[in-house]
Amino acid sequence: MRILVTGSTGQLGSILFKQLKASDYKVKITSRRKPEGIGHFEWVYSDLSSGEGLEAAVKDVDVIIHAATSPIKNSKMVEVLGFKEFLGKMKHIKHLIYPSIVGVDEIPFKYYKQKYEAEELLKNCSIPHTIVRATQFHNFVENLFISKPLCKRYIVPGNFKFQSVDAGEFASHLIGLVGKDPQGRAEDFCGPDIMTLKEMAELKIKKNNESNKVLSISFPGKLYKSFSEGKNTNSLRKMGEITFGDYLSNKLE
């Protein structure tokens, strides 16, 4: 069995690439930029925004883990239009594993809507597939909201709820799906704890022994309401074992 990992230089793709090095699978990786230390893996250039290299990427491949994503630049082209073209090259694929995000069908955020549109494209095609949604990664939440204090304060939308998960655990879960039958829409993969952003900031202050404080702010609108209501969480699917606190502790080691 030969696996293709797309987006091999992105956060999830690079973790998949490293974990698969220790496996017995034959692995092919693709991205716009060649990653370092590929060893015996085959790398192929491809670009979802232009369509270049997609046919070469899927050649002689059985299973694809589609980790390529672009939440900011050319997101519509990469997530939807380019993905649709990519699907047209996959007639021979036995299993396409598509990582998505919990809440893409409920949260009014452009990138989430595009991920949901991609899910619908996949559900309506004939390619055997598994769609598995995850909650946000620990480092994503920290880097986006509580990376640097301003005037000794973490200024955050404190009521936002997150069920952050370890990216490595999610990558392992995706690799575990390779040897299984396609499931269509699979169960969500979520972190062990649901916390408000205020609680996460306070935990970081405690773990790091900081003198900073937390200033909680709120905003009007549906997006703020969605995250405050936890539309990006799933309390019934606490799959990950590494907590946000564990993640912070590991950074100190």
Automatic annotation (TrEMBL):
One Pfam family named in its UniProt record: NAD_binding_10
Residues in NAD(P)-binding domain copies: 7-139
Gene Ontology MF: a single term: protein-containing complex binding
TM region(s), chain numbering: none
InterPro entries attached to this UniProt entry: ComplexI_NDUFA9_subunit, NAD(P)-bd_dom, NAD(P)-bd_dom_sf
Name of the protein described by the UniProt record: NAD(P)H-binding protein
